[in-house]
Design goal:
By secondary structure, this protein is mostly helical. The chain is 58% helix and 0% strand.
């Protein structure tokens, strides 16, 4: 169970809400790469449209739950665009995949970093 949920279940304001509506859904475990790709896809579009694009993006990689940075790095911009991504978003995702694949973005370092350090590491 998520540590945050344990805290909420003890909070005087959330206990009645949880009793009335149930526990919030468990969050799926995501890699940093997956979370950032999702963030890029969901920027400036409706949730419904973003979910459809995300599903088409993942469908580009049959047999994989989510593609690895190496796999995405080796995918053409044109192929990424067939999922409904704009040229700019496809380029951002390709760049992110490259940075994850070459170690520029090292997700193992992130847990020990402050929020400011994480932002600095990601925007390099």
């Amino acid at each position: 169970m998520d540590e945050a949920l344990l805290v909420l279940q003890k909070d005087v304001y959330f206990v009645p809400l949880i009793a009335k509506y149930g526990r919030p859904p468990e969050r799926e475990a995501r890699s940093v790469f997956q979370s950032l790709v999702r963030s890029i896809i969901y920027q400036q579009v409706t949730g419904k449209a973003a979910a459809a694009i995300m599903a088409r993006f993942v469908a580009l990689y049959p047999g994989e739950e989510f593609p690895s940075p190496l796999t995405v790095r080796d995918t053409s911009i044109e192929t990424l665009r067939t999922a409904g991504l704009s040229g700019q978003k496809a380029a951002y995702i390709k760049d992110l995949a490259e940075k994850c694949a070459d170690g520029t973005l090292d997700e193992r370092l992130l847990p020990a970093m402050s929020n400011d350090e994480v932002v600095e590491h990601l925007v390099r």
